[in-house]
Amino acid sequence: MTREAVTREAEEPGTVPRGIVVVGNGMAGSRLVSEIRARDPRVPLTVFGAEARRPYNRVLLSNVLAGAARADQIGLVDPAWYETSGVDARLGVEVVRVDREARTVHGSDGSAVPYGTLVIATGSSSFVPPIPGTEGGLPAGAVAFRTLDDCEAIIGAAEGARRAVVIGGGLLGVEAARGLAGRGLEVTVAHLAGHLMDRQLDAGAGKVLARTLGRLGVRARLEAVVTGIRTAPDRDGAARVNGVELAAPGGGAEAAEAAEVLDADLVVLACGVRPEVGLARAAGLEVDRGIVVDETLRSVSDPSVRAIGECSQYGGTVYGLVAPAWEQAAVLADLLTGADALARFTGAREITRLKAAGVDLVAMGETHHGDDDPDVEIIRFADASRGTYKKVAIREGRVIGGILLGETGTAGTLTQLYDRAAPPPADRLSLFFTGVGGARPADSPVRMPDAATVCHCNNVSKGQILECWEKGARTAEEVAARTRASTGCGGCQDTVAGIVDWLAEQDHDGPGQVRVGVGAAPGG
């Protein structure tokens, strides 16, 4: 629905105003609301958020868990903004039903709000496998790690704990484990697969990651089948966790008797997430793994319903990272306000970043190819003693994937080549090491073209940062406020600050004199 159509429908005499209703106020929904308001200050706009608190950056939850950030430092929207921007924000109100025929959503508070366009941005929820000991819900001392409330519950439980077990060694599990180790707990990660972060890393990188984590106080138990969470009565008689049971290799009755128990005062479940599609399914929308949408983010079942973020599915893919969700939000805001009627979401390249104390990791694209694949050129460097593993996969003269673990100075170069499906340099070592062959470091601001992407979460280029500087932004914080650079995963904070510092040094040359260089962009 274009801005003109929404306004026309809202202004018809004798009718109830029907604007845009957004269900979900997480990272996708809140971004969409702000993007819409940036384009159109008048369109009727309502957002429902099941969590009573203001939206926050879920990517930075691990920083809160580790004590590197406070909960109030990861907020995305100032609560006062809703009122000043004319947004009807219903925080703490869950939408329990969608009446597509009447085009109305019904809230848990008994409210009913009509819509012209409905946007579902319900995200995903933690997957808790049917582990014995959790039949009646998670016992005290066990928490599924997904929300800020979960994070605060884990921090509270960690205060009186000595040993923690994290069930699940994916990205979130590794971040949780590192955060808990930083709080002084003995931490074990129990992971079903043969190496950590098996969705993003190959076995070689997983092995190096496990060794690095081991030096940081995190032990990894791989190919670990969790068969139960053990509990014991606390002083009040309530069941509280005291261990995690692992099956012995081989299975069978003898293996069951030989099961190992990992002592634990705290158990964190990071077993993955599932798209939150119950509301959409109950409304009769087509749902596969996510709500099936086309390139305009429109439900294939109903032209008045759109879906973005982790609950949506485009081209058979459910995107689980923040950058694609924010790209979808920008595209949809363009379409709904009429700012760009030709805007389309045609898919996104997912780049995974892990930033934990003592661990630096970037992974992208196809990372599991081996040396025996005749169609793929593999370049690899490993130094497990230093926690370093680097790999690039090239097919038909194009970078199709890569891993940088431990030392990520060339992450920008590699990310840009992958993002643009560009050919790699003739000197392959320059993909791994800065300054190879006498070249200047790839992330030097002077060598970056204006088009180079600095912040991949928000798609902010060096040129946009320069433009921001020329309009008066003089600090990294001011640049972030105007462009959102560095407000996603935070991986580009140092780069943004470096560009700002460099601009300050070059300022005497005057506007436009700093636009030089042909290098590659750093990651963000």
TrEMBL record:
Its cofactor is FAD; siroheme; [4Fe-4S] cluster. Residues 454-501 form the BFD-like [2Fe-2S]-binding domain. Gene3D superfamilies: 3.30.390.30, BFD-like [2Fe-2S]-binding domain, FAD/NAD(P)-binding domain. Its EC number is 1.7.99.4. SUPFAM superfamilies: FAD/NAD(P)-binding domain. Pathway: Nitrogen metabolism; nitrate reduction (assimilation). It is an enzyme of class 1 (oxidoreductase). It holds the Pfam family Fer2_BFD. One of its GO terms (molecular function) is metal ion binding. Residues 352-416 form the NADH-rubredoxin oxidoreductase C-terminal domain. Keywords: FAD, Flavoprotein, Heme, Iron, Iron-sulfur, Metal-binding, Oxidoreductase. Residues 20-328 form the FAD/NAD(P)-binding domain. Belongs to the nitrite and sulfite reductase 4Fe-4S domain family. This is Assimilatory nitrate reductase electron transfer subunit.
